Amino acid sequence: MFSVVFDMDGTLLDTQRICIPAWEYAGEKQGIKNMGECIYDVCGMNEIGWSKYITDRFPSIDLTAFKENMRRYIIENSKVVFKSGAGELLGFLKANNIKIALASGSSRASIDHHLKEVQATDYFDAIVGGHDVQNGKPAPDIFLLAAEKLGVAPESCFVFEDSANGIRAGHSAGMKCIGVPDIVPFSDDIKKLMLAELGSLSEAIELLKSYI
């Protein structure tokens, strides 16, 4: 039997679009315009990765203040919701006793907050956050740790991702990658690393039925 590993932001939850105005707001608090555009470059990175990206690009930024303002904006102004088909797919996997892991570059605090918002915490047999590994995506570490926590071989896992960095990480981990693009389309090079590209998570049910 196979197992499934989900990315969270932009794949399972519609949170990438939340981040754009949050980064805009946090940047403008320090006089930096158009920081929301940076989201397209950091999709899939963990906090270590996108923090370095910010400080490299904006050396004078107060990173601590940026993070505080960004997170406060998200909590106060945004509602976390599932991506299309996510609830249906999770229900299908649970009904068939398939192990499910979440492997997100976000902090554990963000993961816990978001999953609670959509009442999805109990779906997961293992949860791995960005601070649980030293090397974020596109390194395979987070997916390898997720497989370890599930007690399964990486090659027996399907990984669902919306970002190029995530697909690279899943492929490097030896997992079968299913791409579900969000705010950034996949390049042809990334598509070559995928088993399939889907328009929504609900389309995955028919695909996975053939593996049960």
Report what the structure shows.
- The protein is an alpha/beta fold.
- It is built from ten helices and six strands; from the N terminus they run βαααααβαβαβαβαβα.
- It has helices spanning 16-28, 39-42, 47-57, 63-77, 86-95, 108-117, 141-150, 164-172, 188-191, 204-209, and strands at 3-6, 100-103, 126-128, 157-161, 176-179, 196-197.
- The protein has a six-stranded parallel β-sheet with strand order 3-2-1-4-5-6, sandwiched between helices.
- Helix 1 crosses helix 4 (63-77).
- The longest helix is centred in the first third of the chain and has 15 residues, at 63-77.
The number of strands is 6
**Roughly what is the average pLDDT, rounded to an integer?**
94
Helix content: 40-55%
- Residue stretches low in confidence (pLDDT < 50, at least 5 long) are none
What is the C-alpha radius of gyration, as a whole number of Å? 17 Å
Query: Would you tell me which CATH topology of the largest domain applies?
Result: Rossmann fold
Strand content: 5-15%
CATH superfamily descriptor of the largest domain: HAD superfamily/HAD-like
Main beta-sheet strand count, sense and barrel state: 6 strands, parallel
Keywords:
43% helix; six-stranded parallel β-sheet; 10 helices; Rossmann fold; alpha/beta; 212 residues; globular
Summarize the structure.
The chain has 212 residues and is an alpha/beta fold. It has 10 helices and 6 strands, in the order E-H-H-H-H-H-E-H-E-H-E-H-E-H-E-H.
Blueprint of the fold:
Blueprint: E1 3-6, H1 16-28, H2 39-42, H3 47-57, H4 63-77, H5 86-95, E2 100-103, H6 108-117, E3 126-128, H7 141-150, E4 157-161, H8 164-172, E5 176-179, H9 188-191, E6 196-197, H10 204-209
Parallel strand pairs: 1-2, 1-4, 2-3, 4-5, 5-6
Helix pairs in contact: 1-4
